[in-house]
């Protein structure tokens, strides 16, 4: 806990310092320039410098024999007099010690002198002379500086550290790509405009190619599409390697998640999907690496038109021109003049978009009360379960005609949606300080989601978008009418090699501290930014006590662990199992199939309530983690094939749970000790004939069950299981109230503003 608190404190100070430094040091590039900031030397954030322990050489007995033992009271007076000398502070500043470092170094030096049983002979003699009036207090300075540079070794190698963390010319990191003249083609357009289709057609025609996408689902879709078209294609994701050749020989084409693309393998054609994500604060570095580093004769990038100018400017730095192909939406979609207002007004092909699991559960339950069946899709579901739910919703012969989903539907799934219904226009977000905040949807996010309605390949040739609440509708219209914010910067991330070079100069620093110092000293020009490393540092602090080589520690900290899971128990389960993996690895003990089964309590059974479902999802993430590590440390994670088999079985178990999610919600409600206040949702209205056929055949749900809410049930259940304390629950309730108040005030304020504008 102390390490996490220190980490949070350091991050806050670093963020503020870094923002001030960049704001002051980033002049606007002149017309036609590359935006490189030349001659700027960043001022290090000395609050990140952690002093290391030092020891005496142990020859203090010699000093005492030549003089006499030192009297500590007199010694303290001498040291304090030295500290107050302005001349000494100025001399220290000339050698890189600001007021903070000078104070820290003095406190350490004073403790060293007063508590060390045996001081070095030269220091002992100097101090003895000063105490006896035979020397001047300024004579301490060389010995103080010797000690200061021992506890702050980074100051002696600051020039080297600045060179290592100089990120101003990332185009030079990829000599193989710079050795060829690449053709850059930008396919720009909104969702459902055919931009990716045209890029993929060129990919299929090429002798060799690589597709780089943001999601496993998208990579898998291209993998299947390519092989179906008779073009042998392999699949490479963080957790999976699938080779179509029976002997494991690599195919000429590969579909991969963007982090996994090779920047040394030559290709004829490369496709980079969703290029606007180059500005993503966490993953943007992967798009930057692919765009600058892929060795392909043709690079086809697909994405929003808002990224055209930036990508063109970025390619000036490589000497490559950008050919732009613009596309328009293949099918129209319109904004409705009426909000839905009531779940009784749902129609076949509707998709209700929520931004939290609790809302997913609540809306699903209310739909079931009305005798309707719905499919459910949210981010933490396994890919197989998402595809199964999408298939259920798309099947014209299935009774399921309604979809309840998060913004996970924005990419990677082909869905027959007629109308998108926004349940809310604010989305939870975690800022760079690690604090949760509610932010209104951006135009880009709203368009990405709204564009899923009326897709070209679906049965609905025209899409609609609206809101659940009447007061949200004018806000949505205003959001969608705004131009998309242009992409202005590309993400970068320190590599393992750079951190290893830092560690060579700072062998006593922790990985978390190395990253802090790296980011503090890093130099970037106006085209780039350093990606958020909060998650990486969080994991680094969690395993700092485990003995590991730096490279292994770095790899473990890049593992796919999401510490921002919406359920505390799910996050804790994943992190605890990850720490157990790291500990076992550090002992050189292979992590076997039996070891994993014990840790996830395999075999697992179908869920009986929501808590069970959440646990199954967390167990699936743990198996993903094992597979991810197995491709980095094959000898230590030897049972990948067995793990993949039980993961497929677990995916099927989760699918059973999600198909019966409303039953799980009812079971969770039934376990609540007391019901919540009556729901304010209006009673059901007569349904249209097309929806009557989709009614679920079961007994009428009791009035008491209808009145209970999922949030209260989950809270009570988590309290009973010991996963929440009453104090934490109270804090969560305050945050929930704050978020709801923000959402309401946001809608009210925007509606008022729109009325004034009219």
Topology readout:
Elements: H1 2-25, H2 60-66, H3 72-84, H4 86-94, H5 99-115, H6 121-131, H7 141-151, H8 158-164, H9 175-178, E1 183-188, H10 195-205, E2 209-213, H11 216-228, E3 233-236, E4 241-242, E5 253-257, E6 266-272, H12 284-293, E7 295-303, H13 308-316, E8 322-326, E9 333-335, E10 350-353, H14 357-369, E11 374-377, H15 383-394, E12 402-405, E13 419-422, E14 426-430, E15 436-440, H16 443-450, E16 463-467, H17 473-481, E17 490-492, H18 496-505, H19 511-521, E18 528-530, H20 534-542, H21 550-557, H22 568-586, H23 593-600, H24 610-630, H25 640-659, H26 661-670, H27 689-692, H28 703-707, H29 710-720, H30 726-757
Parallel strand pairs: 1-7, 1-8, 2-5, 2-6, 3-5, 6-7, 9-16, 10-12, 10-13, 11-12, 13-16, 17-18
Antiparallel strand pairs: 3-4, 14-15
Helix pairs in contact: 1-19, 1-20, 2-6, 3-5, 5-7, 14-26, 15-25, 16-17, 20-21, 22-24, 24-25, 26-29
């Amino acid at each position: 806990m102390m390490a996490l608190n220190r980490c949070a404190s350091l991050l806050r100070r670093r963020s503020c310092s870094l923002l001030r430094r960049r704001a002051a040091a980033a002049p606007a590039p002149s017309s036609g320039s590359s935006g490189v900031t030349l001659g700027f030397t960043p001022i290090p954030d000395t609050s990140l410098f952690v002093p290391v322990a030092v020891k005496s050489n142990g020859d203090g007995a010699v000093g005492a024999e030549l003089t006499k033992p030192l009297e500590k009271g007199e010694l303290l007076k001498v040291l304090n007099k030295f500290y107050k000398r302005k001349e000494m502070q100025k001399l220290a500043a000339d050698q890189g010690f600001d007021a903070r470092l000078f104070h820290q170094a003095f406190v350490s030096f004073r403790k060293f002198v007063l508590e060390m049983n045996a001081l070095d002979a030269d220091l002992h003699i100097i101090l003895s002379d000063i105490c006896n009036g035979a020397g001047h207090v300024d004579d301490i300075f060389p010995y103080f500086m010797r000690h200061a540079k021992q506890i702050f070794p980074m100051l002696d190698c600051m020039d080297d550290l600045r060179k290592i963390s100089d990120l101003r010319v990332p185009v030079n990191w990829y000599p193989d790509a710079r050795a060829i003249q690449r053709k850059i083609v930008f396919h720009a357009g909104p969702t459902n405009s055919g931009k990716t289709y045209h890029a993929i057609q060129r990919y299929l025609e090429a002798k060799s190619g690589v597709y780089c996408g943001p999601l496993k689902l998208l990579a898998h879709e291209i993998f299947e599409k390519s092989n179906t078209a008779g073009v042998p294609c392999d699949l490479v994701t963080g957790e999976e390697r699938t080779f179509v050749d029976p002997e494991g020989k690599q195919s000429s084409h590969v579909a991969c998640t963007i982090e996994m693309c090779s920047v040394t393998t030559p290709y004829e054609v490369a496709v980079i999907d969703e290029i606007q994500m180059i500005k993503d604060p966490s993953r943007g570095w992967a798009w930057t690496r692919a765009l600058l580093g892929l060795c392909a004769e043709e690079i086809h990038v697909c994405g929003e038109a808002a990224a055209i100018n930036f990508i063109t400017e970025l390619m000036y730095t490589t000497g490559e021109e950008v050919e732009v192909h613009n596309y328009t939406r293949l099918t129209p979609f319109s904004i409705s003049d009426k909000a839905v207002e009531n779940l009784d007004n749902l129609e076949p092909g509707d998709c209700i978009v929520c931004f939290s699991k609790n809302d997913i559960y609540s809306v699903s339950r209310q739909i079931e009360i009305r005798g309707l069946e719905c499919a459910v899709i949210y981010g933490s579901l396994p890919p197989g379960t998402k595809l199964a739910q999408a298939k259920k919703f798309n099947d014209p012969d299935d009774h399921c005609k309604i979809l309840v989903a998060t913004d996970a539907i924005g990419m990677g799934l082909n869905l027959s949606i007629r109308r998108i219904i926004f349940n809310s226009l604010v989305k939870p977000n975690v800022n760079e300080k690690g604090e949760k905040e509610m932010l209104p949807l951006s135009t880009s996010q709203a368009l990405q989601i709204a564009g899923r309605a009326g897709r070209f390949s679906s049965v609905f040739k025209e899409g609609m978008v609206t809101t659940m609440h009447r007061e949200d509708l004018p806000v949505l219209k205003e959001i969608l009418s705004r131009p998309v914010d242009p992409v202005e910067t590309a993400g970068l991330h320190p590599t393992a090699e750079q951190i290893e070079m830092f560690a060579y100069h700072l062998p006593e620093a922790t990985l978390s501290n190395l990253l802090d110092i790296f980011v503090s000293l890093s130099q970037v020009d106006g085209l780039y930014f350093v990606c958020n490393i909060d998650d990486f540092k969080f994991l680094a602090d969690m395993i700092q006590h485990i003995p590991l080589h730096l490279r292994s520690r770095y790899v473990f900290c890049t593992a796919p662990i999401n510490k921002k899971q919406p359920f505390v128990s799910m996050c804790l389960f994943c992190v605890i199992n990850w720490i157990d993996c790291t500990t076992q690895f550090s002992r050189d003990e292979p992590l076997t199939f039996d070891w994993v089964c014990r840790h996830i309590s395999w075999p697992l059974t179908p869920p009986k309530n929501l808590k069970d479902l959440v646990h199954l999802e967390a167990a699936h993430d743990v198996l993903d983690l094992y597979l991810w590590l197995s491709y980095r440390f094959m000898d230590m994670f030897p049972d990948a094939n067995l793990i993949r088999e039980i993961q497929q079985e677990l995916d099927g178990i989760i699918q059973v749970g999600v198909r019966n999610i409303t039953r799980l919600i009812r079971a969770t409600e039934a376990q609540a000790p007391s019901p919540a206040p009556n729901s304010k949702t209006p009673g059901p209205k007569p349904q249209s004939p097309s929806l009557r056929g989709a009614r679920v055949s079961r007994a009428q749900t009791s009035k008491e069950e209808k009145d209970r809410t999922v949030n209260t049930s989950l809270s009570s259940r988590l309290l009973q299981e010991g996963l929440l304390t009453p104090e934490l629950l109270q804090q969560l309730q305050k945050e929930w109230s704050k978020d709801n108040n923000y959402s309401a005030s946001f809608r009210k304020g925007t509606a008022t503003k729109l009325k004034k504008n009219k």
